[in-house]
Queue: 4 jobs
Job 1
Amino acid sequence: MIELYKVSKTVPSGADDLTILHALDLVIPDGQFVSIVGPSGSGKSTLLGLIAGLDAPSAGEIRIDGQSINEMSEDALAELRSAKIGFVFQSFHLIPSLTALENVLVPMEIAGLRDAPERARQLLGDVDLIARAHHYPSQLSGGEKQRIAIARAFANEPKIMLADEPTGNLDSQNGRHVFDLMLEMNKKRGATLVLVTHDHELAAEATRSISLRDGRVVSDSDRDAEFKETQEETVEVASS
């Protein structure tokens, strides 16, 4: 579970301070698929970075599986990310000197997994790129690079998958393919998926959609909660 309590982010801006995120309360249950939308500068990527522990909040508390990450050391945060969090960036962030297979292997080798090579090949198969295992990033298309990034993000079977505009640098066909792969792997592994996107069609497929504007939540629509509430109301009416 992801929990944020009164979390805000303020940075210096000239003689003044700029508030990127205002005090925010947010709880994301295990396994939920959440999309985060909003115009540029609304705080979407900042929010994702805070959840991942890549940045620290100016105020408030962030908990991952009940564990507060605010006071964690960099080593402890790195261990948490390795064990529980996968991250997919818009710009892929592949290591250019490593092959596709080696890029997927990196997080598993850091974690000391014994079956790392076999698992890496399985993940490449999951994203339909086993034939490109020994190609370097410079030899791959944009869509292929992002699919490698997705395989790498799922390498350690994270409980939480964070994706920051993962289709932003892709054409519509490749973007759709990458999104479908993320969704399929999310369902297969039951990981929580938090997707930042400008694509409202993709965002609409999430079970919950959060809209940000000027660092504030302006809407939070949870279809699962709405469906459950409707079902409970129906049962109450039927039993009365």
Job 2
Amino acid sequence: MDLYIIRHGESQGNVGIEVDDPHLTELGQKQAELLALRLRNINFDAILSSPLTRAVQTATPLAELRGKDITVLHELHEVGAYGEESLADVQKRAERVVKKIRAEYGEKENVIAFAHGTFNNHFIKAACGITSGEDFNFCQENTGVTIVRFIIDNGKPRIKLELANCGKHLENL
């Protein structure tokens, strides 16, 4: 299984516009469109998204391009979006999400998940089997692509961080 973990495009909140559930900016929409073009030839079985508007809006161009539905997974929401959470609680939520995805989609299916910078730090750690390290962060720029690959190597399960925070699709912006 390949798990693509993607941060949403630039949102109103990223440019200082304070609203409860920010939408993508014009630049964020362009980032989402370029991301869709980058991922158009990737074989994947599911598109998952946080319920927050900016994540769904980022997933939409890819879903439309590929004729796929977006499955909203509440647990992908940003840290603090629905009340206070301790870092330990966020990490546990991220671990539950990884376990749920791996159980539901199996070893041979590929999944793309659209979420948020702070949550994705914990999500990537959980996918890589890192259970501690509050002083360690995985950077997540807008529409940055991270790929965690779950493989069998010489009969043993392995986790491979294939790509981290890649924004190659944004080079011509």
Job 3
Amino acid sequence: MLWMWLGFLSLIGTLLALDLGVLNRRAHAVGLKEALAWSAGWIALAIAFSVFIYFGYEYRWLGLGAVVDGADGMLNDGKSAVAKYLTGYLVEKSLSVDNIFVIALLFASLAIPNRFQHRVLFWGIFGAMAFRGVMIAAGAALVGRYHWLLYAFGAFLLITAARLLFAGEKPADPGKSWVVKFARKWFPFTGEFHGQRFLARVKGRRLLTPLALALIAVEATDVIFAVDSIPAIFAITTDPFLVFTSNTFALLGLRSLYFALAGMMATFAYLKPALAAVLAVIGGKMLAGEWLEEAVGPRHNLWLLLVVAGILAVGVMASLAARHRARRVSLANNKANTAQTDRAAGIERRRA
């Protein structure tokens, strides 16, 4: 099993080196077409990896699937492993969308130029993967020893869903968070950018640049969101390899997804209710997992995948429909105002 982990980490390291060292070596503003192309590529790569998951667990390559999954008390074969991997990937990807909007507000608050945002996100996601690896290892060990933690995670997710659903419409400014204030108070910063560098020498002193401050804030933001997403995926599987690989591929595509969606925050009006519903479903699955398995059968993980995908699809379609209705109302109001202005102008001309 050690060789499987080393092989996967080598694959991720190669992809990251290719990304930053070759394809995105020069700082530049990422356009919508480039972002969409990268997003499609990362999604395709994540789906392609599910083929490896199927054969690896079906034929027990290097010990894959040899340990009982604490989420359902079963050994994972190829089909169940793929269902859990894709569900975990979809859940992590959907929860990351809310993270994207917070990061967009953060960059705006700290006035980070678009051409430098990719580098901050790259190192931010690199750190996020390392931190989540530690969380996943610790969480899997704890759940394996204390099964009742799954019920605690389920209750936590239900509370998080309620908090997300009833949260205020106006989000707090992440640029004024306690993390940013703490960093500015205790670390020496320069207010000027020095290219893509996080550390610069100014008048003989080594100072952190605004990019370093943004990186610290991005890392802190991901820690907060990981508190929700890690318990969520343990409702699906406690297999560390499935949890880590699905999380990693979701994070790898986060940067390109950010550049594709950062300017479209207002489009997804029903994003928060959809994410709240996803967390509620997963939390309910944690609390009633044994009953659901008896009621639905051995394919309950496949049904969970379909339900999560359906909720997200409804949220996206409802958001797009609401935006379309708002545009129609706006056009109708503009036409009415124009007609009223023309009538008033006509009356003035006749009086003249």
Job 4
Amino acid sequence: MTMPEVPAGTQALLFDCDGTMVDTMGVYRLGWDEVFARYGFDVTDEWFATWGGHSTAPFVRAALPDADAELVRQVAREGHDAFLANIHQVEAFEAVVAVARAHHGLLPLAIVSGGPRRAVVASLESVGIDHLFDIVVTVDDVAQGKPAPDAYVHAMERLGVDPSWCVAYEDSASGIASARDAGIVRIVDVRLHRD
């Protein structure tokens, strides 16, 4: 995978975590297959491709539309517990990590994730890259997760940067929509740069 050059004048680099910085989706899929099966929902490849980039609550509601708020929270906990039990299986996407390493200390770097903080931080720590980022913004920090723009808006406010001078790195339609709706025009879809 070869990433495009960072444009001159860029004020900050904003990276999604799952599927962009760290290859977690396969590990998540194993856990969610097991958890959702307990509730009578069969995860298909097509369903997971559609919903995999969403924040946890809408993800769970898509699988279990009749679930009340407490059941959504319970299933979310179970899914993230299953993920954390297998955290040792995640790997970094080295081409994206190389961008962060090359700009660490030169530009503000942020993780902007639709996942919960405990899973995001554990993922970054498991591959030894948590120290590269000035801030980590997760669904726990905002009113609405991706595809809403809240997490990107929050990250840019904390960094004090203008969205028109930021670059976002994403791997899903919901993440791209989140960055775009936050005013970011330079968005790298990392799926287009995988070998």
